[in-house]
Design a protein that fits this description.
The protein is of the alpha+beta class. It has 17 helices and 21 strands.
């Protein structure tokens, strides 16, 4: 809400539009109404202008009551605006600096109401907000809004032009093996693969009364060359960028032809790599090392959110980047609810609900709307910085940035030797804590490498001064140089 006693401290932005309206209701108000409703909502002020020096000036409206009457007459005319989202409480006359102005509060439209457009042609009259201005939506953005209107989610679509030959049954077997470990003696355990896929929602019945793959089944278990027949821009990409002088130090993408390229296999391939890059404090429960930290769980949640909320019909693919001090998850498709509501929790509205169910069966991902709040809570407790969600409207994309900078990292060696170390060396540094001495086998277990190969890396790092060591042979231990060691 605007504090009108401090009106001059405000500036036009993504959620505030100023219009003089000295000569009557401006025609551009409808573009702004459409833009705010299709973005995050906002406020339109009539009777206020922003001067060249970015100061605000309140002007006198001669007859605000007539302006409001004209406003209601137009917004309720379906030939001018397709849908009125406002009620009387959202349009008011208030007094500022002894002059009367009009405030119009435009809510963010529900996805089932979008697009909000002016005129009778959505492809000519749909707008969104970007910065201080309204821009005309491209056809692909409008089509994305229509896809999101449906009560059924995108991945429920039965693909009648395909049969079960699109499935990569090695992927199906791997998924079922994980399900057996997660849910032993599940009632579906003895089903054939095709019956199992039908129960899971990967196969559905089309209008021809025959069984065909669903969009969820194709995405989760199909082969890349089959998936792109339905999703022309389908592309999954993971990049590790630990070296500032190298474009990437490791990469996994769906189009190499060396593996299935589907969502299921992509998740497990990439999650394994991401897990190895995250710090694992040396912790034992009994004789078992605990490698699954709250940060690992939050990263899994972020990853699954990215996959199940992607608009796979969108223009660009899904990209995950692991850099030295951050992880970014970027997917086609905007938020289906406001970002603030998603962060506050309690609302679950995935774009691909069947994909979400498939991950949930493996106890991966939250369906109760608590996943995103949990990510923020973990990052706060671990003092890792503040996660950042943003909608990139020009490309209809969503991006989550997770900063990864542990407090202990700031007390490590002050030079740049860690950046120059090999990739495995970076993984080793990531798991090591100041003041803790590690045996070779401890490190080998943590980075999933043989003790012999790990010993080579540790020796090289000790010789370079990145690590220090004590002892000899099997009793040798390694630790970070610095205070307290």
């Amino acid at each position: 809400m605007i504090d009108f006693e401090k009106l001059n401290t405000y500036r036009e932005n993504n959620r505030l539009e100023l219009k003089m309206a000295a000569g009557g209701l401006p025609n551009s108000i409808w573009e702004t109404y459409s833009a705010l409703a299709n973005t995050d909502g906002g406020v339109i002020l009539l009777g206020v202008e922003e001067k060249p020096g970015k100061t605000l000036n309140v002007i006198k409206l001669e007859n605000p009551e007539k302006l409001i009457s004209d406003f209601w007459n137009t917004i309720n005319n379906p030939k001018k605006v397709n849908l009125n989202l406002l009620n009387d409480n959202r349009v008011n006359i208030i007094e500022v600096e002894g002059k009367r102005i009009i405030t119009i509060e435009v809510p963010r439209a529900e996805r089932t109401d979008k697009p909000i457009f002016i005129g009778e042609n959505p492809f000519m009259g749909t707008f969104r907000r970007n910065g201080e201005g309204d821009y005309h939506c491209r056809e692909e953005e409008i089509n994305a809004m229509y896809r999101d209107k449906s009560v059924k989610t995108q991945d429920m679509l039965v693909l009648e032009n395909m049969d079960n030959s699109v499935f990569n049954y090695d992927s199906v077997k791997a998924y079922r093996n994980r399900l057996m470990l997660t849910r032993p003696d599940h009632v579906w355990e003895e089903l054939s693969h095709d019956e199992f896929l039908y129960k899971l929602g990967a196969i559905g019945v089309g209008e021809d009364k025959k069984r065909h793959p669903t969009a969820a089944g194709l995405l989760m278990f199909g082969n890349d060359y089959e998936i792109v027949h339905e999703y022309g821009n389908y592309f999954l990409d993971y990049q590790e960028q630990f070296d500032v002088d190298t474009r990437w130090t490791d990469r996994v993408n769906s189009s190499t032809g060396e593996w299935s390229g589907n969502v299921c296999d992509f998740y497990f391939k990439v999650m394994n790599r991401l897990s190895q890059t995250l710090k694992v404090p040396f912790k034992l429960v009994g004789d078992t090392r605990i490698d699954d930290t709250p940060v690992h769980k939050a990263v899994r949640e972020a990853f699954v959110n990215c996959l199940v909320n992607a608009d796979y019909y969108g223009r660009c693919g899904l990209v995950i980047k692991r850099k030295l001090n951050e992880i970014t998850f970027e997917n086609p498709g905007g938020f289906r609810v406001s970002i603030d509501l998603a962060i506050s929790g309690g609302v679950s509205d995935p774009r691909n609900s069947v994909l979400m169910k498939m991950f949930n069966f493996l106890n991966i991902g939250e369906r109760a709307g608590s996943g995103i709040p949990n990510i923020f809570n973990v990052w706060d407790k671990e003092n890792l910085g503040v996660p950042q969600y943003e909608e990139i409207l020009d490309g209809s994309r969503t991006k989550l940035t997770l900063p990864i900078e542990y407090a202990s990292d700031k007390t490590k060696t002050s030079d740049n030797r860690a950046i120059k170390t090999s990739d495995k060396g970076k993984l080793i540094l990531n798991i090591m804590e100041n003041g803790v001495k590690y045996k070779t086998n401890d490190i080998a277990d943590a980075i999933d490498l043989s003790p012999a190969r790990t010993r080579v890396y540790l020796k090289e790092m000790a010789e370079a001064g990145t690590l220090k060591s004590d002892g000899a042979n099997k009793s040798k231990v390694y630790y970070l140089p610095g205070k307290g060691n």
